[in-house]
TrEMBL record:
Gene3D superfamilies listed in its UniProt record: Tetratricopeptide repeat domain
Superkingdom, taxonomy of origin: Bacteria
Taxonomic source organism: Thalassobius vesicularis
Protein name per UniProt: Tetratricopeptide repeat protein
Classification via InterPro entries: TPR-like_helical_dom_sf
Length: 286
């Protein structure tokens, strides 16, 4: 009579072990799937923050934040996507929410300051930057500090911040252009010309710096184009800028000549230069 009982116990044990094995296997599968989903989600978030259409990214992160309201990485993604989509007014409250999160970093505070500057809230941006410890030294922080100092006409501070920012990046063209524009607005045309030239040396495709360089030269009544890389269209546009600068300086005849050269140089019809020249000629006739 013992044998059936032992057989029953063995069968029960086998069934129990089989159930445990199934449960263990299911847990391992669930963990593996969770890991795969996490990797896929991170990859998708990276794609949304880089190559995806900015408004599509906003939709994705809006939905993700709704499903996971406590996740700071998704809130950052939404704020960043709104900036990429040029929806800065909407981005500010999202960045503020990020900064209030327990896991917020100094980078988040700098990004909030950036969003505030984009909306013209300079005083508030200044306060946010003041809340960042001075030991937190990044290119973006110092670039924003320089811009805020510029807005407050604190020129020595601005120059100091720009200089530090240039030293903290391998691509200084943009900040050199900003620094040059700051010098241009102060009337320091020679120094502005030097900084714009440095900017172009670092990025010869930055047309804004090329145009600003021509403005700095024109302000010094130097009406020759600088020796820099330029396309035919860019050459025409720069001649147009130089012509208008000459007119502003009172050198109207020189300005007209430069505008005519701009029209002749452009490979297509240069409507802006044509209008400028017609306006000058009509004014002279009257």
């Amino acid at each position: 009579m013992r044998h059936p009982l032992i057989l029953t116990l063995c069968l029960a044990g086998t069934v129990g072990l089989s159930a445990c094995d199934k449960m263990r296997g299911q847990n391992e599968v669930d963990r593996a799937l969770s890991a795969v989903n996490a990797v896929d989600e991170n990859n998708l978030s990276d794609i949304m923050l880089t190559v995806a259409d900015p408004n599509e990214a906003v939709t994705y992160f809006t939905r993700s934040v709704k499903d996971n309201p406590d996740r700071i990485d998704l809130q950052r993604g939404l704020a960043t996507s709104l900036i990429r989509a040029n929806r800065t007014t909407e981005a500010v409250p999202v960045w503020k929410k990020v900064v209030e999160h327990p896991e917020a970093t100094n980078d988040d505070r700098v990004d909030l300051a950036d969003a505030l500057i984009r909306t013209g809230a300079w005083a508030e941006a200044d306060k946010v930057l003041d809340s960042v410890p001075p030991t937190f030294e990044t290119f973006k922080r110092y670039r924003l500090e320089a811009m805020v100092a510029d807005s407050n006409q604190e020129w020595k501070k601005a120059d100091s911040f720009y200089e530090v920012a240039v030293g903290l990046t391998t691509r200084p063209a943009g900040v050199l252009n900003n620094w040059g524009y700051s010098k241009l607005t102060r009337g320091d045309f020679a120094e502005a010309e030097r900084l714009f030239s440095d900017s172009i040396r670092n990025d010869d495709k930055l047309f804004t710096a090329k145009n600003n360089l021509v403005l700095a030269r024109g302000a010094q009544r130097n009406y020759t184009l600088p020796v820099i890389p330029m396309t035919q269209v860019e050459r025409a546009q720069l001649l147009h800028t130089l012509g208008l600068s000459a007119v502003k300086q009172g050198d109207v005849t020189t300005g007209k000549g430069l505008l005519r050269e701009a029209i002749d140089t452009h490979p297509q019809h240069f409507e802006a230069a044509v209008r400028s020249l017609r306006a000058l000629e009509a004014n002279a006739t009257n």
